[in-house]
Amino acid sequence: AALVAGGEIVRFFFAPARGDEGLPRRLEAGDIVLGRIKKSAPALGGAIVDAGVGDALLPVKRDAAIIEGSAAVFRVTRPPLGDKGAVLSADWRKRLPHALALEIAKAEGAPRMLSAGFDSVVLIALQAQIFAPAPIVLDRYEAAAALSAAGFSASVDERAVDAAGIEDAIAPALEPEASLGGGARMLFSETPGGAVVDIDAGSAANDSRKPNDRLNAIAAAHLFPELSRRGIGGRVIVDFLPPSSAAARRALLQMLESPSATLYERRSGKLAPDGLFDLTAPRRDFSLLERASEASADGALIPGRRARLDWAARRAVAALERRLRRQPRQRFSLEAGAEILRYLETQPQWRARAIERHGARFDFRLKERTPRSFDVVEF
């Protein structure tokens, strides 16, 4: 799913495929858990909670009473990131439909993830409530019915969802660069604690009309939507081109602090005379790159990251279903390498669900290509 603002996708949300919600998975932001307090952790400003799928931190006020061994319901406000565990909140009822909250409050027994059996669209709604509450538009009536049963409201508009181009927008958000036009670009380099963004003028540097100021203005307009789409949080350093004057630097800083740039929550730092700008954004979720890729295997010819196998397989099936939905009279082949096809064999329910939705108008074919890449072709 995606958050759309001003006709532009500015954030993605992810959940298991519908029907796979009960399979084991890691905690995600928005999940509801039944936890048991293990011990007080004053140095961390809270308590350690057994959440059933690992320990998590519950921040509490200094004078709050912590009863070790007590059980309660919590909401995940940040999943486990790197070597840091999940973070919980006791204010789990916030924005939840009343009937759903009443049902959750009845939970008892061993610590566990209470939202593990929720429909995927409900999981998406729980995530969206944390990051950006907004009206929900779905492309299928059965999904809307699942949301309605949980007490959420939504509308159905298949054309609007398709027009948003969610799947088409994911690939460019995973690229290390974003075009600014005229040969200029933004280069993104993620780090464990944030990111470095470089504004590269490229051939646009030949522009005689104060190219630095013009390109900086374009980059400032693109910066926060790009950071939001990529799910980048933490410390972010942006290397703008050197402004032509003190007045140009003030104008650039004003653009970076304008009300229209508030969608991406952050605390801005200083803008140096040479164009170096820093900011800090809450890191409450996995970045898109973290979800989609993993470190390359030891000994790889090209060090860095490669697509996660499960991610590549899911995107392949999503691309196939998108073509089947858009062209209901055409047949298609999903061409992929052996790795993806072997993975799809372990998930036969994906093929079965695609047949149920679109009929047997497709097949899977082995075609060696770049590892973990795929293509959907007509036949």
Write the layout of secondary structure elements.
Blueprint (H helix, E strand, L loop, with lengths): L1 E4 L2 E5 L19 E10 L4 E5 L4 E5 L11 E8 L7 E4 L8 H8 L6 E2 L6 H12 L5 E2 L2 H9 L5 E2 L1 H7 L1 H9 L2 E5 L2 E8 L2 E7 L10 H19 L4 E6 L6 H11 L10 E5 L4 E6 L6 H5 E3 L9 E3 L1 H18 L5 E5 L1 H8 L2 H11 L3 E5 L7 E5 L1
Parallel strand pairs: 5-7, 9-10, 13-14, 19-20
Antiparallel strand pairs: 1-2, 3-4, 3-6, 3-8, 4-5, 6-7, 11-12, 12-13, 14-16, 15-16, 17-18, 19-21
**Roughly what percent helix?**
25-40%
**Overall pLDDT metric:** 89
For the largest beta sheet, what order do the strands appear in spatially? 11-12-13-14-16-15
Per DSSP, the total helix count is 11
Broad shape: globular
Q: What can you tell me about this protein's structure?
A:
The chain is α+β, with helices and mostly antiparallel strands. Helices cover 31% and strands 28% of the residues. The protein folds into 3 domains: 2-33 and 74-165, no CATH class; 170-281, no CATH class; 308-378, no CATH class. The strands form 6 sheets. Strands 11-12-13-14-16-15 form a 6-stranded mixed beta sheet. It has a 5-stranded mixed beta barrel with strand order 3-4-5-7-6. A hairpin with a 2-residue loop joins strand 11 and strand 12. Helix 9 crosses helix 10 and helix 9 (309-326) packs parallel to helix 11.
Salient structural properties:
single chain; 379 residues; alpha+beta; 3 domains; six-stranded mixed beta sheet; five-stranded mixed beta barrel; 11 helices; globular
